[in-house]
Design brief:
The chain contains no helices and 25 strands. By secondary structure, it is mainly β. The chain is globular, with a radius of gyration of 17 Å. The strands form six sheets. The chain has a five-stranded mixed beta sheet with strand order 1-22-21-20-19, with no helix packed on it. A four-stranded antiparallel beta sheet has the order 2-25-24-23, with no helix packed on it.
Length: 298
């Protein structure tokens, strides 16, 4: 199979230290993303490039939209609700007693619950977990033994969750049942060669294909549901973190990157590191499910 190769353009002049977790806010035609160590939610208008920065009280791993307005955020020690202007309200503590852990990537499942995982600040392997939190703050631990909980998304029917524990270099497919407190038996879908970097954040398109950010790989990769690489988006940045669809008809892919962690020993000059990129990829994505929407909940 011939692999299609694309390039992207920056959507804003703003640079994040560690940009992550883009989500499209269709009500305002904005891309919402985060700068983890910068402790900020970033809101970008792609028509002008203007980016607003909303401070958070601690490092923020991910953000999602709330159906009634505002945001649900994965902050250092738990899941919080807020609008970026008033004090954040704690919804659920997540490993709050362990200062060596923090929350990382996450998004809402097809039923409107927030699913997000943790990461060890000390780089320890196998000590993190993946959690699910509903609008009442009820918390379930879906997975244990994780090292760096990262990208996740669901098939259109909500019965399969794709998930990335970054050091494994593998995208796994888990049977997903909202009524169950654990995930089903997983199967590997994509295994990333060492030369291509580490899989990070992820989204699915309307054709069921997976778009994966490649940390250390200068690219976004698109894989078919059976794991075949068919598209590469080449980027002038070493550490590509995540992506999401947005814009009119959800036909634009927005890509986050990081300026921290760049390989300086080789003298790499990356003025675009930390930028938010955008491009039309010829296929659309799906609107994100807002938190607390109870969509199709069993």
């Amino acid at each position: 199979m011939t692999v299609r190769r694309l390039t992207a353009e920056p959507a804003t002049d703003h640079r994040a230290e560690l940009g992550e977790g883009p989500v499209w806010d269709a009500d305002r035609n904005r891309v919402v993303w985060v700068d983890i160590p910068g402790r900020a939610i970033l809101v970008t208008d792609p028509s002008t490039g203007h980016t607003e920065s909303l401070p958070t009280p601690s490092e923020i791993g991910a953000v999602a939209l709330v159906g009634s307005g505002g945001y649900v955020a994965a902050l250092q020690d738990g899941v919080y609700l807020g609008d970026g202007t008033e004090p954040w309200q704690l919804l659920a503590e997540i490993e709050a007693s362990d200062e060596t852990m923090r929350m990382n990537d996450g998004k809402c499942d097809p039923h409107g619950a927030f699913v997000g995982g943790t990461i060890s600040r000390d780089g320890k392997r196998g000590v993190a977990s993946l959690y699910r939190v509903n609008e009442q703050g009820t918390t379930e631990r879906l997975l244990t033994g994780v090292s760096i909980s990262n990208g996740l998304d669901w098939t259109a029917d909500g019965t399969t969750m794709y998930y990335i524990d970054t050091p494994t270099r593998t995208v796994m497919a888990y049977p997903y049942d909202y009524g169950s407190p654990t995930l089903g038996q997983p199967e590997p879908v994509v295994e990333i060669p060492e030369s291509q970097g580490f899989p990070d954040g992820m989204t699915l398109d309307s054709e069921g294909c997976l778009w994966v950010g490649m940390w250390g790989g200068h690219a976004i990769h698109r894989y078919t549901p059976n794991g075949i690489l068919d598209t590469v988006i080449d980027l002038p940045v070493t550490n590509v973190t995540s992506c999401a669809f947005g814009g009119q008809d959800f036909g634009t892919l927005f890509i986050t990157t990081a300026s921290s962690g760049a390989d300086e020993k080789d003298g790499i000059d990356e003025p675009m590191a930390g930028a938010l990129f955008q491009l039309q990829v010829g296929v659309s994505g799906r609107p994100p499910t807002p938190f607390g929407s109870n969509k199709d909940r069993a």
